[in-house]
Specification:
Blueprint (H helix, E strand, L loop, with lengths): L3 E4 L17 H8 L3 E4 L1 H4 L9 E4 L3 H5 L4 E4 L7 H18 L3 E5 L9 E4 L2 E4 L3 H8 L3 E5 L5
Parallel strand pairs: 1-2, 1-5, 5-8
Antiparallel strand pairs: 3-4, 6-7
Helix pairs in contact: 4-5
């Protein structure tokens, strides 16, 4: 039975921007038991994998949802904010449909960061777009760092 959603990259799916994954052993075991539904907001929003890395300019996901920040491609300098918002909205649809109350999300991601993200070239305290939207809808969030290599 599904108990939570999880950033797809944390259970070994190659959905990160660079085409890799960041498997977390504990979450991988929960996934094997059928307790987690893996989702990638960036793919659900229409971005390919691999894809250009995006970074916040002007604030985090909360600021972006208020129209005060953007997500800009680090190579092309293009505004990809709409893809991140669309992906977060799609994740929220799934969460509501399945009545999911918990999410395990990858820290640092412009979508999934729970406690910290990249803003204006620095790592700062803040949340990604999907994390912010889920939090606003009462979903309990747990940020997970990728394992040290």
């Amino acid at each position: 039975m599904i108990k939570a959603i999880v950033s797809a990259c944390l259970v070994g799916l190659r959905t990160r921007y660079d085409g890799n994954s960041s498997p977390d052993p504990e979450l991988l075991e929960m996934f094997r038991r059928g307790e987690l539904l893996p989702l990638c907001p960036e793919q659900l929003g229409g971005l390919p994998t691999p894809r250009e890395p995006f970074e916040f300019v002007g604030g985090d996901g909360e600021a972006m949802l208020k129209g005060q920040a953007k997500l800009i491609g680090k190579r092309t300098n293009t505004d990809g904010s709409r893809f991140f918002i669309r992906g977060a909205q799609e994740v929220l649809k799934v969460v509501k449909f399945l009545n999911i109350k918990k999410a395990y999300l990858k820290e640092g991601s412009p979508s999934c960061g729970v406690n910290w993200v990249h803003v204006d070239g620095k790592i700062v305290k803040g949340c990604g777009v999907t994390a912010c939207i889920l939090k606003m809808h009462g979903v309990e969030l747990e940020g997970r760092l990728p394992p040290k290599k």
